[in-house]
Fold this protein.
Amino acid sequence: MTFSDLNLDSRVLEAIDAMGYEYPTSIQQHVIPAILQGRDLIATAQTGTGKTAAFLLPIIHELVSVSAEDFAVRALIIAPTRELVQQIDQQFNGMAYFAGLSSIAVYGGGEGGDWERQKMSMIRGAEMVIATPGRMLSHLHLGYLDLSKVRFLVLDEADRMLDMGFHEDIMNILSYLPAKRQNLMFSAT
Ligand code: AMP
């Protein structure tokens, strides 16, 4: 199977080419068609298998295929750590380059200016928000981020988030999302 067999938008294929990916990995071959069919899914995938691209590529495809207001948040990714949020955001920037989509990375434990920067980005908006649960919730409580247009929710390393005690925070975040959405859950175990 090649990436062209997956019916992805030409702007996504251009980014795949620029990143030098030749063939979809096994998880990508399974997950990308399921997401494009609009299905909810639970997948087991370790880091290093290409799982980030497995959810980012079809989401980017959908975001560019359906017209919507610029900077309305249409995808939310929740991940357990600051490092993982930064890695996902980095991959998103490469993959969404030709699609012209923007993202906000939201995490705690950084420098003092991070909070204000994240808040200003949220007020401006972006198509994709990638966040750790606790910091996401703190921003949501303050009311300047509208998640009512979210179509995709990704819980990455969901098992680890539960181990870290984030269950209540995640359930709380879900209460800000519309009921009609696609849910994608990834766990290492
Ligand atoms: P991940 O499992 O998402 O942490 O990805 C591991 C690494 O594999 C990342 O550096 C990706 O850029 C890279 N990668 C993802 N998909 C592919 C692919 N189809 N071909 C080559 N490298 C890939």
Notes: The radius of gyration is 16 Å. The chain has a mean pLDDT of 95. The pocket of adenosine monophosphate is lined by residues 21, 24-25, 28, 47-53, 91 (CB under 6 Å). The longest strand covers residues 182-187.
